[in-house]
Design goal:
This protein is of the alpha+beta class. It folds into three domains: 5-116, Phosphorylase Kinase, domain 1 (2-Layer Sandwich), CATH 3.30.200.20; 123-322, Transferase(Phosphotransferase) domain 1 (Transferase(Phosphotransferase), domain 1, Orthogonal Bundle); 330-473, Vitelline Membrane Outer Layer Protein I, subunit A. Helices cover 25% and strands 27% of the residues. The protein contains eleven helices and 23 strands. Helix 5 runs antiparallel to helix 7, helix 7 packs antiparallel against helix 10 (280-293) and helix 10 (280-293) packs antiparallel against helix 11. The longest helix has 21 residues, at 133-153. It starts with 13 loop residues before the first helix and ends with a strand. The relative contact order is 0.09. Mean pLDDT is 80; it is low at 50-64, 186-202, 321-327 and 463-476. The structure holds adenosine-5'-triphosphate and magnesium ion (MG). Magnesium ion binds next to loops. Residues 30-35, 38, 68, 70, 99, 115, 117-118, 121-122, 164, 168-169, 171, 181-182, 205 line the site of adenosine-5'-triphosphate. Keywords: Lectin, Transferase.
Length: 476
């Protein structure tokens, strides 16, 4: 039996997995896919400590992890290749938007992959729910980042083609952060050739597969882009890629969406709950890029980097209000969890609370409404005073407006080194200047506000669970 010795440290005894899943009991069963059955379980602490990944090891007090156990349906050696492939893949490529591998087991006839359990399950189950447009956009953006990493971020001269992008392979954690899963069918392709392609037997899932791949058997990164486009329309329309009971043009969403887009009647197929909230420029940006993903000519399909950029713009259009102009991105746009703060049109920003030391740990906002009531947002980021940082409050007068934000983007040092964060911030108003808060290191940025007034922030925040190295990765 083929094996990969470098993966030995990820091996988990079958006995521990049986204990964790009540011996694969029906009450632990959560789903069935092409690979086999999936079970939820609680891994005993001892087993978890032995197979832990580095990010986990910074948190020795972690409770036993909740895991998702994928039990491979094997007959003879079938699936062996995909099995080792997925483990090798997951153990070497790490990104906040890829599902985390806990370990694997290979004893007797059993082949099992153990993942971190993503509490909300897969995106397909939420397509027809009342998830807001902003939540939907953030999920798409996360998934796009994960896929972009596979295509362009895994290292010089390599790229990973996913080959089975669909909503059931996009998992969601408790913060609705997207985690791309299932690279079992993927292959590593060279990027240093003008035309990267792999010839394989057709794989993937009906309704999502690039039509060119079906006819030629040639797979490129544009095939993933096509499938991702189908997912974007699933999210917009609140339905699956294929609905078997329809005998007409509604059967395949890719076909239907392309038709309606070209007729200028996309509105007709958008899920009603979001049709009311979606802003026209947000919809226009989103649907244009989704439509381009479905182009039959591969050369006309966008890259994942472009898709990410356009989804970001679509999100900005949605969360900004009439009074502001679009601003740029500073700091890190990956890692941590997304957050946003929006100033209601009738509210006035009265206070910003910053927790900072060598970089900005967290940021919070206090607003005043028309009746004079003050409302404070949560502190976005980590710490909140417990991180040993300094708390600074910036109080604005009722007639004071932000006219500019300046700051620096740096890289963390010390124990938690290597993270791109907002290292300092400085606020200018029509009356005075506040700051700098934090430590001015790294690249400077400035956001002039003379063209509009402040309406909100959005960003990403991450922190270590042991409460020490809290940091804010903000995109402002
Ligand atoms: N890590 C996980 N955390 C939470 N739920 C999961 C996890 N992995 C899988 N699931 C759930 O189990 C179901 C089955 O997953 P599985 O990947 O086996 O099938 P699939 O995605 O529907 O099809 P395919 O086999 O083509 O990937 C998923 O739809 C998902 O809801
Ligand atoms: Mg899957």
């Amino acid at each position: 039996m083929a094996s990969i010795p470098e993966l030995d440290h990820l091996k988990i005894p079958l006995e521990d997995i049986k204990l964790a899943t009540n011996n694969f009991s029906d009450s632990n069963f959560i789903g069935q896919g092409g690979f086999g059955r999936v079970y939820k379980g609680q891994l005993p602490l001892s087993a978890f400590a032995a197979s832990t990944t580095t990010s986990r090891s910074t948190n020795p007090t972690a409770r036993p992890a909740t895991i998702a156990v994928k039990r491979l349906d094997v007959k003879g050696g079938q699936g062996q290749h995909e099995f080792l492939m997925e483990i090798a893949m997951l153990s070497s490529y790490k990104h906040d938007n890829l599902v985390s591998l806990v370990g694997f087991s290979e004893e007797g006839d059993e082949k099992i992959i153990v993942y971190e359990h993503e509490v909300r399950g897969s995106l397909d189950k939420y397509l027809a729910t009342d998830l807001t447009w902003v939540q939907r956009l953030q999920i798409c953006l996360g998934a796009a980042r994960g896929l972009n990493y596979l295509h362009d971020g895994v290292g010089e001269g390599h790229r990973v083609l996913h080959r089975d992008i669909k909503s059931s392979n996009i998992l969601l954690d408790e913060n609705w952060e997207a985690k791309v899963s299932d690279f079992g069918l993927s292959k590593i392709g060279p990027t240093n050739q003008e035309f990267t392609f792999l010839v394989t037997t057709a794989a993937g899932t009906f309704g999502y597969v690039d039509p060119i791949y079906i006819t030629t058997g040639v797979l490129t990164k544009e095939s993933d882009v096509y499938s991702f486009g189908v997912v974007l329309f699933e999210v917009l329309c609140g339905r699956l890629a294929m609905i078997g009971k329809y005998e007409d043009e509604r059967r395949f969403l890719a076909h239907l969406a392309r038709l309606r887009y070209e007729e200028g009647k996309l509105d007709e197929i958008i899920i009603p709950s979001i049709r009311k909230q979606i802003k026209p420029n947000s919809l226009q940006t989103f649907s244009r890029i989704a439509y381009q993903c479905l182009k039959l000519e591969r050369k006309q399909r966008p890259t994942m980097a472009t898709i990410m950029e356009q989804l970001q713009i679509s999100l900005e259009f949605q969360i900004s209000c009439r009074r502001i102009t679009r601003i740029g991105l500073w700091g890190s746009s990956t890692g941590g969890s997304p957050w946003s703060f929006q100033l209601d049109g009738s509210h006035k920003l009265r206070k910003i609370t910053l927790d900072h030391e060598d970089w900005i740990y967290s940021i919070g906002f206090t607003t005043e409404d028309l009746s004079g009531l003050f409302n404070s947002s949560q502190q976005h980021g980590g710490g909140g005073g417990r991180s040993g940082g300094q708390i600074s409050e910036i109080n604005f007068d009722a007639d004071e407006d932000i006219t500019g934000i300046l700051g620096t983007v740096g890289v963390t040092t010390g124990r938690y080194r290597g993270y791109i964060v907002i290292s300092s911030l400085c606020f200018r108003t029509n009356k005075q200047s506040f700051g700098p808060f934090g430590k001015e290191t790294g690249d400077r940025f400035s956001v002039p506000w003379d063209v509009g007034s402040f309406a909100g922030f959005y960003g990403r925040a991450g922190f270590y669970l042991d409460g020490l190295g809290c940091y804010l990765k903000a995109t402002m």
